[in-house]
């Protein structure tokens, strides 16, 4: 959540959907806990250089038709200034991945919001271990040998 009307996500997440809603305050899709609110989408703005085949510039902004009401567990992300992000955030050893993605490679999506810490991977190691083209607009994270990571359905997630 960027502001009461805008959501930041991954552009590739918006490829197949014709119409969808954004749900805020969701923690368990099997339960109504009273904090969940669905918002209709007014507009999708994908980065104009987004390349679907390579995921380069894989970023988009969603504009909602109605504003989000901020409350406990529903708040905008705190975005850093570029220089602080580069000097402090990008020097950290780990980051957080979260979402309702699959919990096993061939499994079903999680019904509860999951979160885990994963180590950042240096660019050269990432390029050597990936069959994808890793551009300057990307960074890598994940374990080399531990079978834990974000999975399909976590892209564009809350963290």
Automatic annotation (TrEMBL):
<keyword id="KW-0964">Secreted</keyword>
<dbReference type="Pfam" id="PF00089">
    <property type="entry name" value="Trypsin"/>
</dbReference>
<dbReference type="InterPro" id="IPR018114">
    <property type="entry name" value="TRYPSIN_HIS"/>
</dbReference>
<dbReference type="GO" id="GO:0005783">
    <property type="term" value="C:endoplasmic reticulum"/>
</dbReference>
<dbReference type="InterPro" id="IPR009003">
    <property type="entry name" value="Peptidase_S1_PA"/>
</dbReference>
<keyword id="KW-0256">Endoplasmic reticulum</keyword>
<keyword id="KW-0720">Serine protease</keyword>
<dbReference type="InterPro" id="IPR001254">
    <property type="entry name" value="Trypsin_dom"/>
</dbReference>
<comment type="function">
    <text>Protein C is a vitamin K-dependent serine protease that regulates blood coagulation by inactivating factors Va and VIIIa in the presence of calcium ions and phospholipids. Exerts a protective effect on the endothelial cell barrier function.</text>
</comment>
<keyword id="KW-0645">Protease</keyword>
<keyword id="KW-0094">Blood coagulation</keyword>
<dbReference type="InterPro" id="IPR050442">
    <property type="entry name" value="Peptidase_S1_coag_factors"/>
</dbReference>
<dbReference type="InterPro" id="IPR001314">
    <property type="entry name" value="Peptidase_S1A"/>
</dbReference>
<keyword id="KW-0325">Glycoprotein</keyword>
<dbReference type="GO" id="GO:0007596">
    <property type="term" value="P:blood coagulation"/>
</dbReference>
<keyword id="KW-0378">Hydrolase</keyword>
<dbReference type="InterPro" id="IPR043504">
    <property type="entry name" value="Peptidase_S1_PA_chymotrypsin"/>
</dbReference>
<keyword id="KW-0356">Hemostasis</keyword>
<keyword id="KW-0333">Golgi apparatus</keyword>
<keyword id="KW-1015">Disulfide bond</keyword>
<feature type="domain" description="Peptidase S1">
    <location>
        <begin position="1"/>
        <end position="159"/>
    </location>
</feature>
<dbReference type="GO" id="GO:0004252">
    <property type="term" value="F:serine-type endopeptidase activity"/>
</dbReference>
<protein>
    <recommendedName>
        <fullName>Vitamin K-dependent protein C</fullName>
        <ecNumber>3.4.21.69</ecNumber>
    </recommendedName>
</protein>
<dbReference type="GO" id="GO:0006508">
    <property type="term" value="P:proteolysis"/>
</dbReference>
<dbReference type="GO" id="GO:0005794">
    <property type="term" value="C:Golgi apparatus"/>
</dbReference>
<dbReference type="GO" id="GO:0005576">
    <property type="term" value="C:extracellular region"/>
</dbReference>
């Amino acid at each position: 959540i960027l502001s009461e009307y805008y959501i930041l996500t991954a552009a590739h997440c918006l490829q197949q959907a014709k119409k969808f809603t954004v749900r805020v305050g969701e923690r368990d899709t099997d339960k109504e806990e009273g904090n969940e609110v669905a918002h209709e989408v007014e507009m999708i703005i994908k980065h104009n250089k987004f390349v679907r085949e390579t995921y380069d510039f894989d970023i988009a902004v969603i504009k909602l038709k109605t504003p989000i009401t901020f409350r406990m567990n529903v708040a905008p992300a705190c975005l850093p200034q570029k220089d602080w992000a580069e000097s402090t955030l990008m020097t950290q050893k780990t980051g957080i991945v979260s979402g309702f993605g699959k919990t096993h490679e061939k499994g079903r999506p999680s019904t509860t919001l999951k979160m885990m810490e994963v180590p950042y991977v240096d660019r050269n190691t990432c390029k050597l271990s990936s069959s994808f083209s890793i551009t300057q607009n990307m960074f890598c994270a994940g374990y080399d040998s531990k079978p834990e990571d974000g999975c399909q359905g976590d892209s564009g997630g809350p963290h």
